[in-house]
Amino acid sequence: MARRPTEPTQAETELRIGATMALPAVLRSLGANPGEVLAEAGFDLGLFDNPDNRISYAARSRLLAHCVDSTGCQHLGLLVGQQAGLHSLGLMGLLVKYSPDVGTALRSLVRFLHLHVRGAVVNLEMNGNLAILSYEIYEPGAVATDQIGDGAVAAMVNILRTLCGPAWKPTEVRFAHREPEDVRPFRSFFGAPLLFDTALNAVVFPVDWLNHPLPGADPELRCLLQAQIDALETEYGDDMPGQVRRVLRTALLTDQARSDQVANLFSIHSRTLSRRLNACGTSFQALLDEGRFEIARQMLEDTRMEVHQIAETLDYADASAFTRAFRRWSGITPGQWRKNHKAARSRRK
Predict the structure, then answer these.
(1) 223: pLDDT confidence band, cut at 50, 70 and 90?
(2) Whether the predicted pLDDT of 327 surpasses 90
(3) Strand pairing of 201-206 and 130-137?
(4) How many Cβ atoms from other residues are within 10 Å of residue 283's Cβ?
(5) Which residue range is the domain that position 296 belongs to?
(6) Quick one: 187 and 245 in the same domain?
(7) Contact status, residue 218 vs residue 98, Cβ threshold 8 Å
(8) What is the CA 164 to chain-centroid distance, rounded?
(9) Per-residue b/e over 105-139, b at no fewer than 16 CB within 10 Å?
(10) What is the pLDDT of residue 246?
């Protein structure tokens, strides 16, 4: 029987508060008292005094869920993300800013985001004449994943607008959740075609922008910043389970999640990967189950995808095989899980 997915440690899933710094101001704009709302959720307003203060990914997700419930604003995550950008990323934001071109900047973001946030990963891929910058949540048990995704996509658009200038426009913006009742705030901010119920939160744009030179490029300063970031990575880098968690979601969604394929990403043999994971008290199968469960849970809660579509996305032979696995993980069927969470959402409204 498959093991129930294991929880990563808090150290693995912490993030700087920087990207969420606008939350108190957003609450005020919605007529709420931020100190009171945060206190109700067990947080002190002082958390937002310093962008380098840290919070666990799970706690941040619970805080956002509480703020949505308190204000009734279903696009609160979008409002918070609209205020985020390179300035929210601390040292890593400077590394991105002083890169020679947009492609190098975004690859630095992909490579080092884990030093800013644990619990999610950014990927950059090319598909013909399009580039796709995506944000994927792998934190087990995270709530308000739709709000987190909206904020992340807004922040990525702000970063691209900063790097590319006013001529840049997204070709399409994708959201890994159902279409909201009111899409006007999304249309107003993104100014591009919106696609909902997708597997990934992503910004799609012409691939030629990756070669766009950055006017503020500074090789010497970037070299100094890189040295500081390398030192941070040595001190705070992920252990092997954390590294595997960061790549598994993308691997699962691209049908590249066999143990040998994942091991190849780290330039090691699958047996070596297995030994290292066992030494950390887990296994590749346990992390694979954890990843599949989190993707399935998010798709069931946030999208209108049918069970057979989710099964196909996660590379199950059929819906029955997926249903059996989901029952092992959660104790109930995917349909019952979706029904329960739909009822919970209705009670909150």
Answers:
(1) very high
(2) yes
(3) antiparallel
(4) 17
(5) 240-348
(6) no
(7) yes
(8) 23
(9) bbebbbebbbbbbbbbbbbbeeeeeebbbbbbbbb
(10) 84
